[in-house]
What does this fold into?
Amino acid sequence: MTQQGVVKFFNSEKGYGFIKPDDGGRDIFVHVTAVSQSGLPALDQGQKVAFEIEPDKKGKGPKAVNLVVLDA
It folds into this structure.
């Protein structure tokens, strides 16, 4: 299921960030590999995105995948 949200924080050097979902739920972790696999060079703070959520294989909570930047 696709969700939408706003990039709260993303640091390319550290390789991760967080997305604040529009539904007001918990922030969603996003890893640099998900960004590059989506064909994006990086994410910018405040950027509107659509994404899907999948569980983290290490059990650390949900993570964002299949990111698409939306027009503001």
Observations:
- Residues 32-37 form the longest helix (6 residues).
- The longest strand covers residues 2-11.
